Amino acid sequence: MIQIAIDGPGGAGKSTISKAVAAKLGIVYVDTGALYRTVGYYVRSKEVDPHDREGVGALLGEISIEVKYVDGTQKVFLNGEDLGDRIRTPEMSMYASAVSAIPAVRAFLLETQKDIARKNSVIMDGRDIGTVILPNADVKIYLTASAECRAKRRYDELIAKGQTVNYEDVLREMNERDEADSSREIAPAQAAADAIVFDNTGMNLEESVDAIIKLVKEKTESGETDDTPPEQKAPSDKKGKEKEKEPRTDSRLYRVIYAIFAGIVGWLFQIRVINQQNEPTKGGYLVCGNHTSATDAVVICYGFRKHQVRLMAKKELFKIPVLAPLIRMLGAFPIDRSGSDVGAIKTSVKLLKEGKCMGMFPQGHRYPHEDPRSTPVKNGAALIATRTHADVVPVFIMRKNHAFKLFRRTYLVIGEPIPYESFAYNPEASGEYARITEIIFDRICTLGEEFAKEQKQKKQSKKK
Ligand code: DC
Prior knowledge:
The protein has about 475 residues and is α/β, with parallel strands linked by helices.
């Protein structure tokens, strides 16, 4: 399996080049812009302002988007209808750009994109592919060209499709759209830190395609890619051989305790870890989960096998005689929940900067019976992530509802790590911690909801 990420501004030739590369390599070409255009089309058809976050957000529940490949060509269906070229007009470009700046829209389209790449070898083009959708892509290219060159290509493309446009308007609209896409708060269009920036001004299609195939071959043949199916890749891995040698961050004592007790703990609490492959190989990440029981911390420690996850725990626990030394041995550290505990934040930042892993519960308290979405959440995780640039690993803990607390099935669902860059933290904007907290907590809740749905479907198909 191979993943090639192509990002860049409009008119750089991403789609034409990617299509040709896909055909030569025999892989799937995924045009992610088409998904944003499809949402834009629906919003336009409902006469809603595409900048109106609430208005657009309210429409998402009415939209079902399906991506199919017919003879190697991507088709996007909106509520069962193939929109064809109706999403390719300049007006739809502006609508797509506007709705793409809305976090709920990005979240809505995220899984569709990831899912295609999980199942196929892909070359995927867009604005945030190398930074958010495929952070572990084998090859990342940021394709660009001068604004005039890109506008001329777009103009020629539209004229060839029989549309009436003039060059000056195309150039102006393209510049406006680039500005909006690259300055938006969430997932701004930008080159990933490890992307190759490729300027193809003055190059024709064939030259660009050859250059990209050459880059892909160089990367593949130098052994920098691997054949692991994407779903088995640990998302925070860096490339190549480095990966197997990630240093462990456990204390020796912890490793001994884990070796002795993990089996017993797993049996007592009947823990099943779902999506173990999402556990990162590299340390320095922050685990965030829902909180319903005092044993949640143990469940997390059990489920993360490659690194010790040091959990933030309420300070009262550190006064209980037998428990206190035990949880200290497990690496837990205290937080005073009565106010903002600067000491606990400092400890967290220190741990993560040292490449260690830590865990916390954004809800701050246990809420055993409530729907997590209805409970309050605190901004500590967002604050720690922005100070350390740590990736966040969302987890959801779910228990079967037996009266007896031991021996009831406990599921720990590990979500794909959220790369820090995808938060697009803007230190100048207000409300950033709350916004990032919302992204993290939404991911946690979604994990639980999707898992519950899967369980239900399994049960129903068993009954049949
Ligand atoms: O690639 P395109 O011109 O079809 O994309 C239309 C708009 O969609 C673009 O202006 C920004 C948005 N987009 C995005 O935000 N992220 C992507 N991965 C792809 C497109």
